Amino acid sequence: MLRCDDYYLPATLDEAFDLIERFPGEHRIIAGGTDLLPWAREGRAGDVHIPVLIDISRVAEMRGQKAQDGRIRLGANTTFAEFLKDPFLKRHLPVMAHAAIWFADDQLRAAATLAGNLVNGSPAGDGIPPMVAMEGSVVLESRKDGKRHTRTVPVADFIQGPGKTLLEPGELMTAIECDDMEGWGSAFEKVGHRRSLVISTCCVAALVKVDWATRRFADVRLAIGAVGPVPCRAKELEQSLIGQPVTAETIRSLSDRTAGFVRSRSRQEYRRKVLASFVERALGDALDELGIAPVSQPVHGEERLHA
Asked: What is the pTM of this model?
């Protein structure tokens, strides 16, 4: 059971920083709380007592989205449900809608924020591979001596390991920025131990851009999660596709080159088989989203069983 002595719901960033300064070492920041509450439930972590909970979900400065100079800026309180419902987000960040479909269920998507997913730093976090693929960065703010301080860190650097990030005491993630992916084909593949509320044992985010005149790959983004301590870009695979013809053979040639990305301690052989299939299928689905004839995509029997 989770217990707290005081619960605060600030409406502005300054109010949030006031509370952080008022309760140093005693507070816990939450937004959706969708990871904290299950973790604190009896049987998972036993009784958990947090003196002060500061809920930043109502902070107006941490909401909203905008496009500028080829980048998209998301308020940190953007929820996974918004990626499925908001026309602006579906147009500019289509891969996030694919990832959000797999994220928990309707109730959790309505509360869970992308920033919370990033701050938790889970190797299996569904929002992390798409953000890594889109050259995402996190905006971190703090207040010292009455002055606001802001720094921006690439998502790929921000996640340091399982549950480890570069977030410093007193800092809040106030926004996330990433490349505008309007006009790209995208896909997200995921598999886990169960079908409902699945936690990834392997996931892939794929984005593709095609040179329509030559029917060749103009640009490719591939990010892989849940098979190692941190999600990562498959940059060598990306580069090997650029300029190549859009054919089933071109894509299938990557399958034998994905095994090295699996660095988890468990189910390594299973993950290697699934990852090879997922890279192939995700690229095919991303092309299909662009209206290019789908490539043939054989599915490994073990992955078919668990998908």
From this structure: 0.89
Q: Identity (one letter) of the amino acid at 267?
A: R
Question: Which token pair is 94?
Answer: 């289509």
Distant-in-sequence, close-in-space partners of 292: CB < 8 Å, separation ≥ 6 = 185, 210, 215, 246
In sequence order, what DSSP letters do the residues of 98-126 get, joined into one string?
Answer: HHHHHSS-HHHHHH-BHHHHHHHT-TT-T
268-307, pLDDT tens digit by residue? 899 999 999 999 999 999 999 999 964 444 444 444 433 4
Residues in the chain: 307
Specify the 3-state DSSP secondary structure of 195. coil
Backbone angles phi, psi at 299, to 5 degrees: -110, 125
Assess contact for 204 and 278: CB atoms under 8 A.
Answer: yes
Q: Are strands 232-233 and 200-211 parallel, antiparallel or unpaired?
A: unpaired
* Residue among 306, 31, 37 nearest 194 (CA): 306
Coil, strand or helix: which one is 248? helix
In this structure, are residues 233 and 221 in contact, taking their beta carbons and an 8 Å threshold?
yes
Q: Which residue(s) pair with 147 in the sheet?
A: 144
CA 156 to chain centre: 11
Closest CA to 95 of 201, 210, 188, 211: 188
